[in-house]
Specification:
Layout lengths: L17 E4 L3 H12 L4 E4 L5 H18 L5 H9 L1 E4 L10 E4 L5 H12 L7 E4 L6 H5 L8 E6 L8 E6 L5 H13 L3 E6 L6 H17 L5 H10 L7 H8 L1 H14 L10 H8 L35 E5 L6 H8 L4 E4 L3 E4 L5 E4 L13 E4 L10 E6 L38 E4 L21
Parallel strand pairs: 1-2, 1-4, 2-3, 4-5, 5-6, 7-8, 9-10, 12-13, 14-15
Antiparallel strand pairs: 6-7, 9-11, 11-12, 13-14
Helix pairs in contact: 1-2
Pfam families: 3HCDH (PF00725), 3HCDH_N (PF02737), 3HCDH_RFF (PF18321)
Protein name: 3-hydroxyacyl-CoA dehydrogenase
GO molecular function: 3-hydroxybutyryl-CoA dehydrogenase activity; NAD+ binding
Length: 454
């Protein structure tokens, strides 16, 4: 019997055995998801003793869920009763689904699946959790490549709902249907996708990381400031530096390099030299105690750069409209600052003539108007808690300090500085200065006719 004979649109049964090969962070997380769905689960790892240690780690996590009253002690005990670490690949023979979560190396994955094919039944689904390798290439060495597909979970697997269900060139459609239904029954959100470099999420995410790392390399700002701006202005839950420290710099850099190579070295996917140096130095993020940030015991959180407060101006002139930043005008008026209007332009002007305009990919120093400040695009200026500013060298300096400009007043007050080229932001907001010599990364900016990015 083959995988395609098991029916269309129906996942594996709850009583069916799920095996996870590779017991690192992702393997443990996937095993926990399958346990939570009621399956018996077997863990295998080529390193002696590692599967048993992974089972202990899963037990610890389930214990913490019980302590937080997110799981009953009875359910924990039942789940642990279904979890079995094994030391021999042959112990996976009864599996209906095997999910591989080993190191991201094509030859290693091919070797594993070739061995598995001689162990499991013809109806067993085989899935790789690869985040960037070709599913087609992984399956290419199998006698029956139609039953192998990609199931790409995201870290941490028990919490992240999305799972990419990747169909390789030789994958049977019914195998995809069966895997999709299984993942949906696990309470996840499965998304079908083709076997393209990076699939969906990792392909889209590459420029998010790359532009941030490039801005750091060009000394636009430090990691803490860039992360804070993307959280407070862009609406992201985590910035790229803290996120890659969580993922692992080695893992993230390997995915970037894989996508870059698969797309014929497209410049927008070029790996970061700074990140490569982190990997080479063993600073892989939280798991090693150091990455972009220091995660050692007792290390404090790095503070982002924040401008000092200043007094608001007496009035502001709006020239034309600000496109996607037009909402700022209402915030200024709500703060009690008079706004005059001129028909031509796309900027704000302070009483001293300093021009404030939305970042458009050019530098503040390249502005033909000497005294100028670029401000960043925000997902929602009313709720934004931080915004990035870049001033030209000729922009006036405030009495609060060189190019300081953020003044915090009451909630939902947008206050401009009287003698400097910037303002405070609503609702506990702050401003972060970036280097005026570095162009704002163009791919962070939305066209004036578009909606702000999310």
């Amino acid at each position: 019997m083959t995988a395609i004979d098991r029916g269309t649109g129906r996942g594996i049964d709850r009583a069916d055995l799920v095996a996870v090969v590779g017991t690192g962070t992702m393997g443990q997380g996937i095993a926990q998801v399958a346990l939570a769905a009621g399956h018996p689960v077997r863990l295998y790892d080529a390193a002696p003793g590692r599967a048993s240690r992974a089972a202990d780690a899963i037990a610890d996590r389930l214990g913490r869920l019980v302590a937080k009253e997110h799981l009953t002690a009875a359910d924990r005990d039942a789940a642990l009763g279904r979890l079995t670490p094994v030391a021999d690949l042959a112990d996976l023979a009864e599996s209906e689904l095997v999910v591989e979560a080993i190191l991201e190396e094509l030859d290693a994955k091919r070797e594993l699946f070739t061995a598995l094919e001689s162990v499991v039944s013809g109806g067993c689904l085989l899935a790789t959790n690869t985040s960037s390798l070709s599913v087609t290439a992984v399956a290419g060495v199998l006698r029956h490549p139609g039953r192998l597909l990609g199931l790409h979970f995201f870290n941490p697997a028990p919490l992240m709902p999305l799972v990419e269900v990747v169909r390789g060139a030789a994958t049977d459609e019914t195998a995809v249907d069966r895997a999709h239904a299984t993942v949906a029954a696990w309470g996840k959100t499965p998304v079908r996708c083709a076997d393209t470099p990076g699939f969906i999420v990792n392909r889209i995410a590459r420029p998010f990381y790359a532009e941030a790392f490039r801005a750091y390399e060009e000394r636009a700002a430090d990691p803490a400031t860039l992360d804070a701006v993307l959280r407070g202005s862009g609406g992201f839950r985590m910035g790229p530096f803290e996120l890659t420290d969580l993922i692992g710099q080695d893992v993230n850099e390997a995915v970037t390099r894989s996508v870059w190579e698969a797309l014929s070295h497209d410049p927008k996917f070029t790996p970061s030299l700074a990140q490569r140096q982190l990997v080479a130095s063993g600073r892989h993020g939280r798991k090693t105690g150091h990455g972009w940030y220091d995660h050692s015991e007792g290390a404090g959180r790095t503070a982002p750069h924040t401008a000092e407060p200043c007094e608001p101006p007496g009035k502001v002139a709006l020239h034309g409209d600000l496109g996607p930043a037009q909402g700022l005008v209402g915030l200024i008026e709500e703060a009690g600052i008079p706004v005059t209007r001129e028909p031509v332009g796309s900027h704000l002007a302070l009483p001293d003539g300093t021009r404030l305009s939305l970042a458009d990919g050019t530098t503040a120093t390249g502005d033909p108007f000497a005294a100028s400040v670029r401000f960043d695009l925000a997902l929602d200026y009313r709720t934004a808690t931080r915004v990035a500013l870049a001033a030209s060298m000729a922009a006036p300096r405030s009495p609060c300090g060189p190019r300081s400009a953020c003044s915090r007043r009451s909630v939902r007050r947008s206050v401009w500085s009287r003698t400097s080229p910037a303002w405070s932001w609503p609702a506990r907001s702050r401003c972060s200065w970036t280097s005026p010599r570095t162009p704002p990364p163009a791919r962070w900016r939305a066209p004036r006719t578009s909606t702000p990015p999310c």
